[in-house]
Specification:
alpha/beta, four-stranded mixed sheet, 27% strand
Length: 208
């Protein structure tokens, strides 16, 4: 009798879990729906990030290209310039933005960061590549104290303008974008180093 009751209870629990199971959908980095096995085959950290979103009924798995190209229209570009330096003229060939979205599993350090973006040669080499304006922008300052606030000037993303323009989702760690004086840009999502910024800058100034 006891065995029968335990099996009955087990079957009830299994049926309940299946009835409450969430639907899963998967998208590749071209925003095409794919199978779960295809999703993981196409997952490649050098090329894309895997992001996951969950609600009461659905789990969405999404691959996002790390490197992206775009063009700001005139209206957005003017707002962008005023947002960075209100009432001041920007003098540059390239604008570089390092973006901190807030603490996550990637940037949860508890000591001063050794990230090479803070190396002395980072800005020196960037200056050899081209004339630039550089900005360090944050959304949420939790844990930002470990990312050299005395060495660099971190600025709040007012009205989340930078986030809405370039970084619509929370990409892990940090992200970056380089923009030329005509509004063309290359954004890069997720973890990167100083060489990535040098490469993006070089590519953008040579891009016709």
């Amino acid at each position: 009798m006891k065995k029968y009751l335990s099996i009955t209870l087990l079957l009830f629990i299994i049926n309940l879990s299946f009835s409450q199971a969430k639907k899963k959908i998967f998208y590749n980095d071209n925003f095409e729906e794919v199978t779960e096995s295809n999703f993981y085959k196409q997952k490649n950290y050098e090329r894309n990030l895997d992001l996951y979103f969950e609600n009461d009924t659905l789990i969405t798995s999404l691959l996002i290209k790390r490197k992206n190209y775009g063009q700001l229209n005139d209206s957005i570009f003017k707002k962008f310039q005023k947002n960075l330096l209100p009432n001041k003229e920007l003098i540059y060939e390239i604008i570089v933005i390092i973006y901190y979205p807030g603490k996550d599993n990637c940037n949860r350090v508890d000591r001063s960061s050794r990230w090479n973006i803070f190396d002395n040669d980072y800005l020196k080499k960037l200056n050899k590549i081209t004339k630039f304006n550089h900005f360090w922008i944050y959304k949420d300052d939790e844990n930002l104290k470990y990312y050299h606030p005395r060495q660099v000037k971190w600025e709040k993303d007012n009205n989340q303008f930078i986030e809405k323009t370039f970084f619509e989702l929370h990409y892990p760690c940090f992200s970056a974008v380089v923009i030329d004086k005509n509004g063309k840009y290359i954004s890069y999502f997720g973890e990167f180093g100083k060489s990535t910024i040098w490469e993006l800058t070089t590519e953008l100034i040579n891009k016709k």
